[in-house]
Amino acid sequence: MILFRSILFNLLFYVTLALYCIAAIPTLLLPRRAVVTVAKAWAATNHWLLRVVCGIHYELRGAEKIPSGALIVAAKHQSVWETFTLLLLVRDPVYILKRELLYIPLFGWYAWKAGMIPVDRGKGTQALLGVTIRARQSLAWGAQILIFPEGTRRAAGAEPRYKHGVAHLYGETGAACLPVALNAGLFWPRRQFLRYPGTVVVEILDPIPPGLDKKDFAARLQDAIETATARLVAEGRRELAAHGITLRAAAAES
Fold first, then answer.
1. Average pLDDT of 118-122?
2. Spans of all domains in the chain
């Protein structure tokens, strides 16, 4: 049953993505907000499909901790799931994403129109300068900058590999940072086809105020996210086990 549901969901997921990309073409001529609105509708549709087809629900904890103004949102990255879910959690999202995504027809055009911030990973420190300038501009209009501190997906339970980009951004922009923990990688594992039923939990943690030393900030951010994520992963594994589902150890996927 899980295999059948996974096949059906993946088919519908990509068909829906294609349809939204085509339907959204007129937004390229409209203000930026139109593209963001369509992206949020696409994210909501994905959640409906996950719930109906795969039996995957999600629970948001700590929503009251989300500030209304400009800030940096630093989230754990385990799955494709959070890449669209975060669109729904903040008012005016601006992602920091790898530059290559802008080259994808239609998708890249929408990302550019929506003001997403590309980063050329091959340029190292030089790339951070351009990202910082764009981030300051976005924060000035009250946007929420979304960044995955590890830069890429890591399997649920895998050893963390935080990069210095988020600390640099925090120090150079003077913005507060909102840590986000989750366990999505258990139900939508990276590089896997199957989608497992259950409840993905997203936990909004206490905001980190501006002004900390970059090194102190980095340590505080990682400790907050990893401590909460470990707890959520253990919770998710217990839920899966109750349904007779045992996932292989994350170490084999890291």
1. 82
2. 56-252
